[in-house]
């Protein structure tokens, strides 16, 4: 190879290069798919002269022989993040764990508080100017190579040359070790649960948003669910194949980013060989240190920043356990808090925690009344905004403990909702008579539409957690609107009445809210509910629209959607009682496309609306 002739005095094999390391030094190993495996192996196999060396790294995909029993006199590992290859050693006390925000590790290194003496890295071949690229791993390695006394580098032609803050001149490297090996791969994964979580999360992400996500089933599912969106951007600590897929589809363009527009900003990448090939010399990819990518103040400069992170468990107050499992350290703090706080401070940003509702094949709820002893809180209850499972979305920001407990119980697995509510009552989190969410919420019934007046709205089924916002809306309605809805002058709307209104089984009763998002929260514009008479299979239906949204077609839209839902459930139609002078509501029913008959009774009109069927399709008994 030409570079070997140019830098022949620096070329060594791995065993020879390792001899330059002295005892008692702290050694950083390159991260993820950039782990210099031959140097690591040679350090253990041929580093008999070493003693009391501290090994640190973020996370590596290869083996960790320096943690094996019998190497204790020579090596002690300190994990910034506990990967699978060192988890047992940490659990058994043969290795240490340092809880630290990923954004702060470069500062720890540069300040020499956690000084790096030796950096073992893997790089791309030198270019014509003598610069190598750190390739798929810039993260904390950037700070290490800038401050280490000794740098030993594997040079691999399969390492992509990535752009950004990834370059290092050969003069800074003591020895170059030629290798030609494939980078470790992480294959895309998925299952039915993660796909549903992905759809739920995608529903929170608008066009033009900037994304942060990790690697695994849920991030992969979120990216798949975003196919067809427009002008998304990426500012993340890492990404995998799904990002490249969306770049090639034209979904990720970065055009609407407010920080480094047009750039996919990341600190490391892990995935398949295809991913490594795609990021090679790609002008859109900007690799930066985690001191930049994970700085909450930098993250917040991205408007519409969507931070999507996972968790092992969430308690009913909103605390997030992400680095411990069954009382033992499992992973690490990583970048979760960095991005949660950065997204929370972004204009129109959202901080999202996504997790399956259960673990251990459905036998354990991940939504928990309280964590077990030894569990660690990574993200505090004050930081959490959205929690997502396959059963829905809980919006916790600005919510009381009572509201949080109800919202989180609502998205827990149905098998655990009863015991979670019992625990919440025992802790006085909720009212003593609080109902248990009794049905799986029909997310698929939600529809976005644009009214004739041009406003965009969302029609979605009512939830138990809508109780207080709905109560607030009712209290702000005019006396005339209240009278038209309830056929009486109703001055108070007590909690028990509202609880009955929002307590639905979605078969015998159904309710839709018309909402729009404003200022990061939903604004309720109107509501429609029906209740089925089992004897007639007709549903009594009623509407209310807030005063300033009346006359814009909202009642017509709600009626049309309710008719679709009722027909799909096999109902025959509706009944309704309307004040005779409520002409707008009567026009909504008469324009519904159903067969309408009316009966006037002392200032009210009783309407019966039936679905139209061809005579040959009318079932027996159809009146």
What keywords describe this structure?
623 residues; eight-stranded mixed beta sheet; 34 strands; 20 helices; single chain; Glutaconate Coenzyme A-transferase
Description:
The chain folds into three domains: 177 residues, Glutaconate Coenzyme A-transferase (3-Layer(aba) Sandwich); 235 residues, Acetyl-CoA hydrolase/transferase C-terminal domain (Glutaconate Coenzyme A-transferase); 175 residues, Aminopeptidase, CATH 3.40.630.30. The chain is 26% helix and 24% strand. The chain has 20 helices and 34 strands. Strands 15-13-11-10-16-21-25-26 form an eight-stranded mixed beta sheet, sandwiched between helices. Strands 27-28-29-30-31-32-34-33 form an eight-stranded mixed beta sheet, with helices on both faces. Strands 4-3-2-1-5-7-9 form a seven-stranded parallel beta sheet, with helices on both faces. Strand 19 and strand 20 form a beta hairpin.
Anisotropy-based shape: elongated
Number of separate structural domains: 3
Beta strand count: 34
Q: From the coordinates shown, what is the CATH architecture of the largest domain? A: 3-Layer(aba) Sandwich
Q: Roughly how many Å is the radius of gyration?
A: 30 Å
CATH class of the largest domain: Alpha Beta
Give the structure's gist in a few sentences.
By secondary structure, this protein is an alpha/beta fold. The protein folds into three domains: 2-178, 3-Layer(aba) Sandwich (Glutaconate Coenzyme A-transferase), CATH 3.40.1080; 192-426, Acetyl-CoA hydrolase/transferase C-terminal domain (Glutaconate Coenzyme A-transferase, 3-Layer(aba) Sandwich), CATH 3.40.1080.20; 443-617, Aminopeptidase (3-Layer(aba) Sandwich).
